[in-house]
């Protein structure tokens, strides 16, 4: 059995390694047979490298099925091909796991496959550098989110994904039998994160959530990753600022990773300050476009698309009618019909929603009743409000949609490893 421990990745090979003995590993991408000499392109997660195989190993190299996992030892020498500054003159070549050809998709991307076919073969699809670059960026983006929030004093938490009742009311939840009781998959950490401000002051969570909505579009998923924050003793303008810093941190992180240049990164111009547009200003702009909407009506998809044509990038829609928002959203003190709330948009696409929360238990119970919800069903949540609940505000950001915007992807499934929607439950 060959030793599988490599000494170098492809990205670590350069002129400074010439004449060094190295051991590399990866998958075979191309083979060029010119008689006694065989050139093998091997790719790993960091890039491609060229092996020069001669002697007894040449025959094995010629017969290696493409995409097989291999390990090779040899000496680094100056490359003769324009694509490789250096190459490895191989002294030992071993096929660890041969790939079974023909493969269901071409992971080099030279032969295009449909998105559905690629998703069916996602592990193989990730060998395409353009695809893997998206998920390297995704990892970098999550790191940036965590760093930006920790810098502002937020504590990372983990809340349950299995719950005993609808957390917000009105949403379609996935239900199942839970030890002879009824259980549900959480649609958000909303109520938990509010409770946690009681003792932890500022909290955030990055986790999966679930909505049983039969919407098969390029932007909807049944399982999605949400970034949620909640903070005590701040209002909705404060947490809008926090959201701006997070968006900017992700964009700056993407700019730093030039090695992921093969990913289709959207060239976004993110201003120092994201513009704010009130709900009523939206109605005025839509009226100027010939679409008249009464105060209190929600903005339809077509309305948001019209606004997206006017506002091409990121912008906030603020001060929504209180009746359009969930029971926990706080009203404006000088106008109870309007709430201290906001949505973050990118064109027509909603990325985040948030606002100041109602911390007065009497008003909270009244809001539940006004929305046709029974306060007794929220007793576990409401009891925390009798223990000195601080005023608090927060938001939830759809990270998959943010990735879609940041990479310029046309379908959210392009930026999710194993998407789940109304049609897809595998792989």
What would your notes on this structure say?
By secondary structure, the protein is an alpha+beta fold. It folds into two domains: about 90 residues, Nucleic acid-binding proteins (OB fold (Dihydrolipoamide Acetyltransferase, E2P)), CATH 2.40.50.140; about 290 residues, BirA Bifunctional Protein, domain 2 (2-Layer Sandwich), CATH 3.30.930. The strands form four sheets. The protein has an eight-stranded mixed sheet. Strands 1-2-3-5-4 form a five-stranded mixed barrel. Strands 7-9-8 form a three-stranded antiparallel sheet, with no helix packed on it. The radius of gyration is 27 Å and the shape is elongated. It contains eleven helices and 18 strands. A hairpin with a 2-residue loop joins strand 14 and strand 15.
